[in-house]
Hints:
Helices cover 32% and strands 24% of the residues. By secondary structure, the chain is α+β, with helices and mostly antiparallel strands.
Amino acid sequence: MGNFFITIDQGTTSSRAILYDNRINKVDISQVELTQYYPKEGLVEHDLEEIWNSVVFCVRELIEKHSLKPEEIVSIGITNQRETVALWDKKTQKPLAKAIVWQDRRTAEFCKKLKEDGLEEVIKEKTGLLLDPYFSASKMKWLKDNLNLKNKSDYLFGTIDTFLIYKLSGGKNFFTDASNASRTSLFNIQNCKYDEDLLKIFDLEDIQLPEIKENADYFGETELFGGTIKICGVAGDQQAALIGQTCFESGSVKSTYGTGCFLMLNTGKNLVTSKNKLLTTVAYKLDGDITYALEGSIFVAGSSIQYLRDKLNFFNSAEESEKFALEADPSSQVFVVPAFTGLGAPHWKPEAKGAIFGLTLNSGINEISLATLESVAFQTKELLNAMQADGAKVNSIKIDGGMSNNAFFSQLLANTLKTEIYKPKDIETTALGATYLAAIGSGFAKQDDLKDFWNMDKKFLPENNLDQKFAAWQKYLKKLIQ
Ligand code: ADP
């Protein structure tokens, strides 16, 4: 058996491959940025050829740079942007259209019509998701109609994991995993199978769908890198981060702060239906057992800091936001609602726009930087409140993503949430999670062994109480979306 793992992390803005050693420590990384196509207002596309070439390039670069032989690689893990839909020719493996990315809103009208037809409740009950263009099914329907696809044996639909597995295996394996399948809107979370009623609702009864595997499983093998390498672990990005943070116990929570923020609570075998507009999803399926999660997503987290950097020219690097916030007038009552691309959970107001409130002649870069970091903590508080209202008991949260490098922000989170915050040494938890799955799937490690792999970097304990500021911020937010 080999000594290394390679994990493919196919994200929205880039494709990466990460090399790990047999202690699952990161050795090296290769990364390629992806072109974002915005052909019209509300449309977001990716070029599938570009995705494929970037993935092959990254894996090959690692193998060549480290002179790895295929037999030295235990297995490949895959994690990916979720919900994005790929369509390709079954025989030639060539894409038949650009991928429709999760952010794409082109099917808003179709989803609205389904709502008017009274189908929202049944979709919510079966899928655990909301009726929204965000998820894959309406995007598949759009492609089927607009490309006038007729003969179902000619083409294949899949999420990005499926597209990569199909291509890596040379067209042999048409597979997905339970976490990715649970974001399609075609998957019944009760029994972990595609659902006839959902296929009918989305007019997709006549398409071929990938077989749903467990997260640590045999997904086939690839011969593309000079020999045979198995693929043994697959999960969608947020579920992979939950696994990478070893949140295996019911009640454990991770929160990822990248472009947006994704809070995910492991609810164990309990399928919790949210009364507060959170999503219910499959966290993972291992050894025949399904573990569920509650998920809340905020569209804007780190991108608000990017906005201060790139549009308001406050600083040259996102890290500097920490220094400016530390110098803010502590009595400042400036509030930011960073609804640049609408508001996600628990409001789901796609039309909302961002705003700054409470400016005085004393409000400068420092105060607005502080208010922006606070706004991300306050939004997290809303998600946590929603989870608690749904019955969750949360004592601590493990954080990751680029913004978790900001110690001031992490402390702010502990204060706002009145919860202990833990930051691991390796904040690339998405890739780490897929590697853990590849380790389990190849028989290299057991789920119980993985806790020993998680290393803490810093712990933040609640200090000051921010209740009053949070209440004031909520008032402004309500005013904005009324
Ligand atoms: P993604 O995976 O979504 O591309 P990352 O996890 O790489 O995101 O995080 C990048 C985001 O985090 C950027 O939006 C950036 O503005 C923000 N960010 C990175 N470092 C810091 C920091 N020290 N303080 C505040 N924000 C940061």
